[in-house]
Design a protein that fits this description.
Length: 230
């Protein structure tokens, strides 16, 4: 999102840390609707995606292009591949909740306990996108998020980040936002092997040269030798 008081470069430099904090401080609420979320198979994915369906792909693409617009500093989010990073993450073991405790019991927690919902990250995305689009339809003449104006999209994202948007399903909007925000930052700055940070655009933005294998010839030369300390 745009911030008139802070330069984009400075904003993105601290974004990953802020994103992690927003997840940790998100309200740990267990809505009945989320508890009853079925573990049904995913609908057919959109072309080029392994998880996102057509409506979800439109949402994610619009969101990443709004949060990371094209300017003199970098290409837009979809050109950087942030949408691809998110799709791959959701279809991976992380998205399926392989490292999440999913046994319950489920109850209201405190922010310091972190994520407290009985949904895998992929299920959270699916439910969150559906709920956000339902809010948009109700608020903006039956239009989904991807069909809103730039100002309207900004209002929606600000509402998600502040937790002022209340989903009819009971899903905590700020928890959804915290995970999405963190993923956008990861897609911006992670190793390009994961689909985001295409052409090292994120690294170039912050002046990071990347992990370049330019010292292979020195491996044997310094093998088993003491590392110099001065």
């Amino acid at each position: 999102m745009k911030d008139q008081g802070v330069g984009r470069r400075e904003f993105l430099k601290g974004a990953a840390v802020a994103g992690a904090a927003s997840v940790a401080s998100a309200p740990a609420i267990l809505p009945e609707a989320a508890q009853a979320q079925p573990a049904a198979g995913a609908p057919p994915s959109a072309a080029g995606y392994s998880f996102l369906n057509l409506e979800e792909a439109a949402f994610v693409e619009t969101l990443v292009d709004h949060m990371v617009p094209a300017d003199e500093l970098s290409p837009k989010g979809t050109d950087i591949g942030i949408n691809t990073y998110i799709d791959r993450a959701l279809s991976s073991a992380w998205g399926k909740g392989d490292r999440c405790y999913m046994q319950g019991p489920w109850s209201v927690g405190v922010p310091s306990q972190g994520y407290q919902l009985p949904l895998t990250p992929a299920q959270l995305y699916r439910a969150g996108i559906e709920a956000t689009n339902a809010h948009c339809r109700k608020t903006y003449d039956n239009r989904t998020f991807d069909r809103l104006t730039e100002a309207q999209r900004e209002d929606v994202l600000q509402g998600l980040s502040r937790g002022t948007i209340e989903f009819a399903s009971g899903l905590p909007s700020r928890t959804f936002w915290g995970v999405v925000y963190q993923n956008v930052m990861e897609g911006m700055f992670s190793d390009p092997i994961y689909g985001g940070n295409r052409n090292k655009a994120g690294w170039k933005l912050i002046g990071f040269p990347g992990a370049i294998a330019v010292h292979r010839e020195n491996v044997e030369r310094y093998r088993d030798k003491e590392f110099p300390t001065n």
